[in-house]
Write a structure and sequence with these properties.
With 136 residues, the chain is of the alpha+beta class. It has three helices and five strands, in the order ββαββααβ.
Length: 136
């Protein structure tokens, strides 16, 4: 994710920012409001921001830590759930519970968190809240 942005609009609660591309922005003669990718960020440090300023923005470290822990714990829990779900699923589908079947179910359950995270991040992008950390 790019960390350098240009401020396009400042409101009371949010700051509209666009990703800063040195090549494109240096030759641009238009206003930043004409750019297609506009993100919203919070200004928790209370910087005096004006349109056209270049800032650094990032996701909060608490949110990043929380996501890192989830990325480690959730797949392991799903794999364990897949291991214990192999017997009932074998009975449900009327197949013999072999090690290969159990391994397949564990692998299938490992892909569940990735699919859920993919769907959530595509549908709910506002969950990731940017915070302005520095003025450049």
């Amino acid at each position: 994710m790019r960390k350098i942005f240009k401020v396009s609009k400042v409101t009371e609660n949010n700051v509209d920012i666009i990703p800063y591309d040195e090549n494109a922005c240096s030759t641009c003669s238009g206003s930043c409001s004409s750019c297609r990718v506009v993100l919203q960020a919070k200004n928790p440090k209370g910087f005096e921001l004006k349109p056209g300023m270049t800032v650094k923005a990032n996701v909060s470290t608490a949110f990043q830590s929380f996501c890192n822990v989830l990325a480690l714990v959730v797949p392991i829990l799903c794999a364990v759930a897949g291991f214990f779900a192999a017997s009932p699923l074998a009975a449900l589908f009327n197949v013999e519970k072999t090690e290969a079947f159990t391994a397949g179910i564990v692998l299938a359950f490992l892909f569940v968190p990735a699919l859920v995270i993919f769907i959530i991040t595509r549908k709910r992008s506002e969950l990731i809240e940017l915070q302005i950390t520095e003025i450049i």
